[in-house]
Amino acid sequence: QVQLVESGGGLVQAGGSLRLSCTTSARTFDSYTMTWFRQVPGKEREFVAAIKWSGDSTYYADSVKGRFTISRDNAKNTVLLQMNRLKPEDTAVYYCAARPGRLWMTRGIEGIASPNDYDYWGQGTQVTVSS
C-alpha cells in the first residue's frame, strides 16, 4: 500500500503564497503520475494540477494556470505545489493523489482530471485564503 502525506497548508492573506508538499512511500515513484485535487465542503472534488510520471509534462486547471506550479523531487519521493497570488476562491482542503503504472493521458484530459482514476490519496491539508 502506498502512503501519501500532505503538508504545508495554512492561513494566508489574498495575494500571498504557500508551498504544499506530498511525500510518498512509493518504491517506484518515477512510475507514478501525481496529481493535486482540492475540495470545499458541499462541493465535488476539483482537479488542480498533474505531473507525468517522467516529470516532462504537466497539466493545470484553468483556474490556477499562471499562479500554481507542480513539480516533483524524485530523490525525496515528493511532489510539490507552489501556489502564488492566492485568492479567497482557492480556499479548500488540498489532496495529493497517485496513479501507478506509467499512465498519462490514456483517456485524455477528462481521465487525468478525474478523481476516479487515482488509486492512492493523502489525508488532505487545509488552505485558507483571507480577503
Strand content: over 45%
Poorly predicted residue ranges: none
Terminal CA distance reads 40 Å
Q: SSE order in H/E notation?
A: EEEEEEEEEHEE
Fraction of helical residues: under 10%
What structural class is derived from the secondary structure elements?
mainly beta
How many E strands?
A: 11
- Biggest sheet descriptor: 7 strands, mixed
Mean pLDDT, to the nearest integer, reads 95
The global form is globular
Rg value: 14 Å
Count of helical regions:
1
Chart the SSEs and their pairings.
Blueprint: E1 4-7, E2 10-13, E3 18-24, E4 33-39, E5 46-51, E6 58-60, E7 68-73, E8 78-83, E9 92-99, H1 108-112, E10 120-121, E11 125-130
Parallel strand pairs: 2-11
Antiparallel strand pairs: 1-3, 3-8, 4-5, 4-9, 5-6, 7-8, 9-10, 9-11
List keywords for this structure.
globular; 11 strands; four-stranded antiparallel beta sheet; 1 helix; seven-stranded mixed beta sheet; mainly beta; 131 residues; single chain; 45% strand
In summary, what is this structure?
This protein is mainly beta and 131 residues long. Helix content is 4%, strand content 45%. It has one helix and eleven strands, in the order βββββββββαββ.
Descriptive notes:
By secondary structure, the protein is mostly beta strands. The chain has one helix and eleven strands; from the N terminus they run βββββββββαββ. It has one helix at 108-112, and strands at residues 4-7, 10-13, 18-24, 33-39, 46-51, 58-60, 68-73, 78-83, 92-99, 120-121, 125-130. The strands form two sheets. Strands 2, 4, 5, 6, 9, 10 and 11 form a seven-stranded mixed beta sheet that branches. Strand 5 and strand 6 (58-60) form a beta hairpin. The mean pLDDT is 95.
